What we know:
By secondary structure, the chain is mainly α. The chain has a domain at 256-409. Helix content is 66%, strand content 2%. The longest helix is centred in the N-terminal third of the chain and has 28 residues, at 90-117. Residues 360-365 and 367-409 have low confidence and may be disordered.
Amino acid sequence: MNHNIKKNWYxxxxxTLLLIQAAVxxxxxxxxxxxxxxxxxxxxxxxxxxxxxxxxFAHGVDAPILHGVSRxxxxxxxxxxxxxxxxxxxxxxxxxxxxxxxxxxxxxFNLLAKDIYKExxxxxxxxxxxxxxxxxxxxVFPTYGIAFTSVPLIIFFLRKLYYANTFKEQLxxxxxxxxxxxxxxxxxxxxxxxxxxxxxVIILWVKDKKFPVSTFVSIVVLSLGYVLFEYRLFGAMLGxxxxxxxxxxxxxxxxxxxxxxxxxxxxxxASFHSEDSHTYIVLGVVLAALVLIxxxxxxxxxxxxxxTDPINLVMLWIIFNVLIFGLYQFAPFRHLFEMxxxxxxxxxxxxxxxxxxxxxxxxxxxxxxxxxRTWEKENAxxxxxxxxxxxxxxxxxxxxxxxxxxxxx
Length: 409
């Protein structure tokens, strides 16, 4: 019994966390206090109105709000979260959406980890399960929680396409890419995912010295998927003269210094009411691991590897995202962007900050993998230290700080 508990400690830990989450709602039911975010009341009201007036599938009609607003300006009926509100009472729909966010986050993160680690997956399984559960539980506002935690899915699909050898192998993954918008949202994630894919095409083209056809075709396929699943949004954007209210909003023009401070604050404190856990736990562990990994390269005379290490590249991505987050509030930069791409005037491209949740948790797993893999290679003989990765050995010669970080991760 004790051996079984030690072996499956990660299942007991994550199971307890999920049970506590479920118990809150199962015990208090309709008296539960839902988290309140600036978008919660807004979308709840929209969904109730669409359902009460039978407007979810309606066309060419105005909704009874703000003296009549086109139905097309509200959420699409072809979205998983929205379907919960179409089919269920509001309270049940909220719980279903919250549960789906967690389940999809755990499933998608674990699926991607299996694809990356392959035969080494079992070495990292306890770590992956724990981090995948934390990823599914990340505090984001409810309406688009599924769009947040489903990000690993699109990466998984693109990897499958990239490594497929024939069109027959690629076809089901192209279909998966096309259907991905069903769990995503264009304005918050889709636009930026497509931009990142363009960057990926350039990087892979240079790296492989041949044009990455599958990745390029995926951009077209995913774009068509977003157009279909969010046809109302694209119809309003491209087929009408409706001007977004954001073109007249005060974005809080900051000086360049203030914009950089905003970017730094986002890097250090994060968003969505997770500031304490991010600042005092996640950020500390990641930065400490980053220092150790790069110090090891310098010590071993391999400083050039710092420039190509995937962990450092992910950190550059994070820094880029927070810089855009800050610069969005710097008027000259925002006006330059609007001048270059006029149709996107008013578009809040500071939403690059919404992608910080995945790089950070993925980074923790990568740091862990890097430490374990390096120490395993250096140990020809069996190690005496059996760490909490469920089977991966850590170097007994590692410093106390390294072992502490390893177990903490």
